[in-house]
Every structure is written in C-alpha cells, then in structure tokens.
What does this fold into?
Amino acid sequence: MHRVKVVWLVAVVCLVLLATSLASWAATDQKTLTINATVNAKAKLTLEVAAINFPNADPDDVPSVSATENPVDVSVKAHAGSGSTVTLTVQANGDLQSGTDFIDISNVSWTATGAGFAAGTMDTVAVPAGSWTGSGDRAGTFSYFLANSWDYVVGNYTLGVVYTLTAL
Amino acid sequence: MLAGDRRKRRAGDGGASQNAPPYKGARGWPALVAAACLAILLTASGAGASVTLTLSTSTLHFPNADPDTSPVINATENPLGVTVRVTGNPHGQCQLTALAAGDLRSGTNVIAISAVKWTAQGTGFVSGTLSSSSPQLMGQWYGNTYEQGSQSFRLDNSWSYATGNYGQTVLYTLVTL
It folds into this structure.
C-alpha cells in the first residue's frame, strides 16, 4: 500500500509540474555584444563671411560706421570634455593699413548676440569673443563697427584678424 | 531451510496471485500515469528543443566622426552576421531579443543607448532601436529553423556628446516560447 501511495504521489507531482511548466520552460541561448564608441575633441568655427567692409562716411553724420555685412552669422561647434571650457578669441594682425597710413585697430569693435558670445574691441593680442562649457552647437552673430574720424587719411585700408576656437 | 523458504514464498505468491487481477491493476495504472506524465513533461518542457545563437563578432565600434559630415556613424564591423538554429521545436515559436545593460558610458558622460539603431537583413530578422529598459525584438521564427541574417548598426551623431571612449554591453537572447 505504501508503494501505491508513492506512485500516486509521483503521478500527482508530475501533473503539477506539467501544468506549471508548459508555459515556463524554454530552450535559451545568450550572447553578449560589446559596443564601443569614440568621441574625440573637436572644434569647428564657421563665419558667414570671410571679409567685412566699412564704407566711406562723413564722421559728423556717421560717427560709427557699420560694416556692410552686419550682422555676421557665427557658428561654434565643439566636442569637449563635460566640464571643459570652449573658448573663442580674435586677434588682429596689426592696425588697418593703407600703404604707409594706419588706422589703429582699437577703432574697430563689435557687438554680439547669442548665448556665450561676447562683444569687444579688436586688439593685436587675443581678445575673448565667446566662452562655453562642454560640447555643443552654438549660434550667434557679430556686428562690426569702425569709430569714424576726420583724422583718417584717405585710402583703402585692410587688415586680417584671426578667430581661434579652442575645445579641450 | 532456504529451499523451504523459497517454497513458502512461492506458495505465498501463489496465494496472492489469486487476488492479483484487481490488486495489480490498482497498483499498475498510477505508475503508468506517472510514466506518461513524465514523458509528456519532458517533451512539453522543451527538453528536446535546442537553440543556438551565433554572432560573427562580440564587439562593435563606432569611430569618431564630425556630426556635420557624418550625422550617422556606421559601426566599423558592419554587417554583423547572426545565425539562429532551432531544433526539436517543430511547432513552437522562437524569438531573438536584445537588451542593453544601460546607456553608452564614458566615466560620468552618457550617450543614450537609443542613439544606437540597427537595420536587419534575412528572413525573420527585424530592424530596431536598442533599449536598456525592455528587450527589443530582433527576430522571430516558427518551428525548427536555421536562419542566417545580418545586422548593420549605426549611432546617431551629435555635437552634444562629450569627448570620451564610451562602452556598453548588449545581451542577445534566443529563446523558444
């Protein structure tokens, strides 16, 4: 009689297991895929124009001459460390020059729009024109002005300035 | 004594065999039920089913790229070969899913794992976007099958990503249902 009970018990257990396992047991295989991605430091500066021009104007009527190209669109894009500073500077190569005549570069200034972009005055040393923290795509504008004067000698003045965007 | 015992035992057995038909039947059919249940159990449990998943590589790499010129970065190892083999499961369903362990990480910097997508080629294979919150379906088949497909992974590029070497694991699971 004891053996009969055991067999019955086995049968019942099997039925229970069968009922519970029908929906839960499965054949499985698993594999792990590792994904890596590299992001290197990069700075990308885009100016809408490569040259600006200050037209002739009467110093009495136009004490501050606006560049014909104003406003100039500026785009600053950078991949940087999360806490790193992204900086934009501008440095003039010298004064505005026409032959042997000069207009001091400090007579050229600019205003700025856009978060992080800074207004300033040109100089022969690097001057801040913008600052940001971390990676991002930033857009702004610069508008340039020349302080007019009766002192200027007639001529076609020219000068190069260098913008430098740095992302660490 | 031994011969006598055997004789007694045979005599006893003989006596018992007179009541055998009802008693043996009562003792025998539960055993049969148990054996049948066990057989069904083993069959239904998928004990006979076998699945094998093979990936042509265990690592993918997205190289550095300019987001303006490469808004989408293709994995260097594309296409990733995927082989699925299912046997002993003639009437069942089989699914391949992928679950990321988290976002792409480089120290404290993060690129959302949803920026990683794949396109699939091959019968039963499907395209999708990686997730770390729920397994994403990569393929589905019925019955015994042997399928060879491929997956091409891409990363949505962005200027918002901080510099770094990012990494994360993705668990592929092939299972019969």
In short: The helical segments of chain B are 2-17, 20-44. Residues 2-44 of chain B form one domain. The first strand of chain B starts at residue 50 and ends at 55. Residues 1-21 of chain B have pLDDT under 50 and may be disordered.
